[in-house]
Amino acid sequence: MAKRPTIVRTVPALRRALSPFRRKAERIALVPTMGALHRGHLALVRQAQRRAGRVVVSIFINPTQFAPHEDFGSYPRRFETDIKALTPAKVDLVWAPSAAVMYPDGFATRLAPQGAAMAGLEDKFRPHFFGGVATVVAKLFTQVAPDFALFGEKDYQQLRVVTQMARDLDLPLKVIGVPTVREPDGLALSSRNLYLSAGERSAAPLLYRVLKASAARIKNGDKIEAVLDIGRREIDLAGFALDYLEARHALTLAPIAARKDGPIRLLVAAKIGKTRLIDNLGV
Questions:
Q1: 38, 41, 69, 128: which is the annotated catalytic residue?
Q2: Distance between CA 160 and CA 115 in Å, rounded?
Q3: DSSP code of 20?
Q4: Strand arrangement, sheet containing 264-272
Q5: 143: domain range?
Q6: Are residues 167 and 222 in the same domain?
Q7: Predicted confidence band of residue 69 (pLDDT cuts 50, 70, 90)
Q8: Residue 128 bears catalytic tag
Q9: Fewest beta carbons within 10 Å, which of 56, 153, 225, 270?
């Protein structure tokens, strides 16, 4: 039977747990999560194990990246189920701080990322989001001091923001993006998929189908804006409330008008019922 991972909840306990790994000069990989783990998270763990001798998974639902009207209170919390999933995955350490540990009384510092964090995508609809993400991820990076940190490509703008932050702050680690894990029908795995009703779940894969069809049209030489207009209409007609369907430069997330302008990433966000879904695909 696999050994249950060590769980630590305070910064001193975290440092004590990491010190034997450091004494042996073992490489450490961090997989940051908000819990409600699924196969996508476990794929990150497997990739982490290929790069490092020790793997730390953080489980922390970060209140500073939720606006008051968002789902912080109802976000899935399944800690014991998560630990059961991480046990056969042979994770070494679970870092599970409380909000009081991460944001103690008097906490007064917050990062304000620019660049990809101001691309007019998620930031347009969730202007609070990337400040909260950058702040908590910077704390996780300094607390764990990993050699590698792994993030899923599903949250593509987040990946670009975190990568830039680590570079700008000269943090001594490598941020690695891992391809999105999908259901057989194409729906990107997400903890928020638990919110979908049966009918919404049946409709949800349309977003990925639109991304694939749009990428194919762009590769065939169709004009990008015309392709996006087709995709937007299809999403609207399927009953989604579309926030955006955009073609952006894959590294900077700047708007892009033609294939020659650089590597392209298609990004989409839309709400079906009460559930907001995001996805993306390279061209």
A1: 41
A2: 9
A3: H
A4: 241-249, 264-272, 275-282
A5: 6-178
A6: no
A7: confident
A8: no
A9: 225
